[in-house]
Amino acid sequence: MDYTTRNIPEGLEVAMTGRFTYADHQKFRDLMGSFPTLRGKKLVLEMSHVEFVDSAAMGMLLLARETAVGNGVDTIIRNPAGKVRSLMQVAHFDKLFAIE
Hints:
Number of helices: 3
Shape: globular
């Protein structure tokens, strides 16, 4: 998985691409280090170009949500597509995240 970040008026957008797997664990944890600076804002995970997520990636998203909530940050998953969206529906991520 690769990602780019950009500041948006409501907070931070992270545009993710490729396959999001256990191999991305450290990279994602490094990204999570920026969450405390977003207090009171939003974190938008743009996932339209993520083609695959494994169970570890799903766990990382849950950890990201927990960390964000603990820092007063709203988390939005934007544009998951195909199998990624299907997996999120099966896992009831819509109950935990705002999915746009």
